[in-house]
Amino acid sequence: MTSSSWWRLSMSPLEQIQQHLRTLRMPTAVEIVGDLLTTATRETWPLETFLSELLEQEVEGRGQRRVERLQKSSRLPAAKTLAAFDQKKLPLRLTRQLAQLCNGEFVARAENLLIFGLPGVGKTHFAAAVGHQLVQAGHSVLFTPTFHLVNELLRAKRDLLLERELRRLDTYEVLILDDIGYVQQSRDEMEVLFTLLAERYERRSVIITSNLVFSQWDQIFKDPMTTAAAIDRVVHHSIIVEFGKEIPSHRAQQAAQRIKQETPN
Predict the structure, then answer these.
(1) pLDDT by residue (tens digit) across 200-253?
(2) Taking the model in full, what pTM does it have?
(3) What DSSP state is assigned to residue 177?
(4) Do residues 67 and 135 make contact, with C-beta atoms less than 8 angstroms apart?
(5) SS3 state at 10
(6) Are 124 and 146 in contact (CB under 8 A)?
(7) Is 36 exposed, middle or buried, given 0-12, 13-18 or 19+ CB atoms closer than 10 A?
(8) Where are the alpha helices (DSSP H) in the chain?
(9) Spatial separation of the C-alpha atoms in residues 255 and 120, rounded to whole Å
(10) CB neighbours of 95 closer than 8 A, spacing ≥ 6?
(11) CA-to-CA distance for 132 and 141, rounded, in angstroms?
(12) How far apart are CA 230 and CA 238, in angstroms?
């Protein structure tokens, strides 16, 4: 008899089952199998019912662990969720768009989401709220300020690792580029940003927030031909969300409220 056989004989049947489940990498099943066996015995479940319940809970556990991993890697702002978004200040057209976007169908079609508006109106929260809902649905998402990602791409290009960095970014189904108008607008930055958008064209979704309308994107890409090509790639197969001037700036309102509270009567 082998040493492993002696080891198994020293274990109870439940411990042996748990050990097999660990070998099969079924951590949820390891945790619940004891209680589930007790319930099955008490309620005289058929074996099929017990096995079905065990596997169902393992599948649910795996799904939850996947969402937790996706949430951690997404870098989404923790506070900018759908539940925390004050939709009462939005016009009806935007609340309807938000609800439609959260179902994630645009990701399956590799469409882009372009969000335009003045500073402080809630573009970033809108984009992040959609991102959080996509993660809950099992989509891989990466949220990043555009200038930060451009700097990472520039470092990768300098180290001759740009292709590898683009492959890493390609593992994300959705890339959220926040405040695209705030890049420093050098030619090198323009080139790596354009390369990224071109690589994802018709394959992966990009969500972009911007204070600059398309007619001002020459401030980002400088060269008219490159600007036109970049706009063409992001607009083709895209959904556009516009925060109109009727939507007040949240930051301005908060500042006014603080001043009011601090001003003596």
Answers:
(1) 998 999 999 998 888 888 777 777 888 888 888 888 889 999 987 655 555 445
(2) 0.80
(3) E
(4) yes
(5) coil
(6) no
(7) middle
(8) 3-9, 13-23, 27-42, 47-74, 92-101, 105-108, 123-136, 146-158, 162-170, 187-200, 218-221, 224-235, 250-262
(9) 11
(10) 87
(11) 8
(12) 13
Spatial distance between the Cα atoms of 107 and 186, rounded to a whole number of angstroms: 31
Q: Which residues contact 219 (CB under 8 A, 6 or more apart)?
A: 181, 185, 212
Say how far apart CA 171 and CA 116 lie, in whole Å: 26
> Could you please report the per-residue DSSP string of 104-144?
-HHHHTT-EEEEE--TTSSHHHHHHHHHHHHHHTT--EEEE
Q: How far apart are CA 175 and CA 195, in angstroms?
A: 14
Provide the β-strand partners of residue 240.
114
Could you give the dihedral angle defined by the CA atoms of residues 101, 106, 111 and 112, in that order, rounded to the nearest 10 degrees? 20
Beta bridge partners of 208: 114, 177
Average pLDDT over residues 90-115: 93
Q: Which of 205, 263, 212, 262 is nearest to 242 (CA)?
A: 212
**Phi-psi sector, 228: left (phi>0), alpha (psi -120 to 50), beta:** alpha
Lookup result for tokens 């539940």:
83
pLDDT for res 252: 45
